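Researcher: Structure for this, please.
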Amino acid sequence: MANYIQIRAKKASDVIGAGVISYALIGSFLLYKFHINLMEYTTPIILGFVVITVSFACTKRFFYHIMMENSNLLSFSIRKEFISVSDAINEPQNEPQSEPQKANNYTQENEVGGQEILNDTKNDTKNDTKNDTKNGTDEIIEHSYSYLEKYAMLQENIEKENIKRKVLIMEAIREYVTYTVAPYLKKEDVLILLENINCMAIGHTSSYKSIRSDLNNPLRSPDLRHLAWNIGERLGISNRERAIFIKASFPFELRDATVEYLERNLRDVIPASIPIDRPAKGDYKFNSMKKTIAA
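Model: Predicted structure, token format:
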């Protein structure tokens, strides 16, 4: 509420300020150009507007006080009329007895019997209604539980499919990495690199171990940047995490590159032994592995 009032006050002050400045500019222009004093024309209008506004406010306040002082009397009179009307409606009507006492007794007996029958009928109807309502409520609850069970089953199936997909993605990554870096790394270093990929997938960035490529056939910075991008794209990892992963895994090869530089240049167009391998939409397989299998 306070913010709303502040906003309204700010808008009003802006409008008033703009109006004052506009008035001053127009008045100065007319006085300088045409020797017309704008105050002579606007002063009566402003005074009249002020007088009307003050008169309206005073009149409104006067009638408001009068209505508030007489509110108790008005409410009491209304309440009194309402009570009188209610009494008139609820007043019992006495029917004249024009028949003999015997006829009255017979009629009363019939009325009592009919009332008993009517009461029994009402009780049966109430019981049937309660039973129907109970049965309907039970059916609604059963349907609700059935839908909840279906929802739980759907969620379980979705979770199983997600786990299965993650397993397949990791298998594809392991196969791709092993095939791609085999010419550049020893067997022990390939195992360490795969372990680092597992740590990146689960967010254990502090568990990375460093390795180094073959001195006679080393991996260059573009190769490693492309490798990190290809792997992270399948795992849905951010570029920042990919840069940290590849920097920690190959600190010697990337000794001259910062994490910020790697983050900005993971997917560049520089020719490299390991090219960018962009997966198809909704797919995780590597195009280079498809070509290898086809060959």
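Researcher: Any notable elements?
Model: The two ends are 72 Å apart (CA to CA). Residues 101-181 form the longest helix (81 residues).
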